[in-house]
Write a structure and sequence with these properties.
125 residues, mainly beta, OB fold (Dihydrolipoamide Acetyltransferase, E2P), four-stranded antiparallel sheet, elongated
Length: 125
């Protein structure tokens, strides 16, 4: 199960990459940001798009930021290869990338947690 806050890739139901990686649990003290698109509580716009039809495997190609880097809302975080296409995964909020578990070249599975972002505190007027 994917916790809210995960940066995740969604595959159509019933498909999985040939060699599914081990899913690692994120520390509980990190604030969730993105829910798995299959979750009914997932806010519109925060879910990653699924791959093109027939694509059952994805590969993390490149992280554009490192753990500890500040990120802006909408900033590209990483590139994922889905079939013959590269797709950018963007940050849903401004904050700090706390950790990422997958590395370039790793196969990634549906709903796998790739990293966590600590959002900036809200600005109070």
């Amino acid at each position: 199960m994917v916790e809210p806050g995960a940066i995740a890739i969604q595959f159509p139901e019933g498909t999985r990459p040939a060699s599914a990686p081990t899913v690692r649990e994120a520390p509980r003290e990190f604030q969730p940001l993105i829910q798995s698109p299959s979750s009914p509580a997932c806010p519109a716009g925060n879910a990653s798009q699924g791959p093109p039809e027939g694509v059952t495997e994805a590969t993390l190609m490149q992280w554009r930021v490192r753990a500890g880097d500040p990120v802006e809302e909408g900033q590209e975080l990483l590139l994922v290869a889905l079939g013959d296409h590269l797709h950018a995964v963007t940050s849903p909020v401004a904050g700090t990338l706390l950790v990422h578990w997958s590395e370039a070249g790793d196969p990634i599975g549906a709903g796998e947690t790739l990293g966590w972002i600590r959002p900036l505190p809200p600005v109070l007027d």
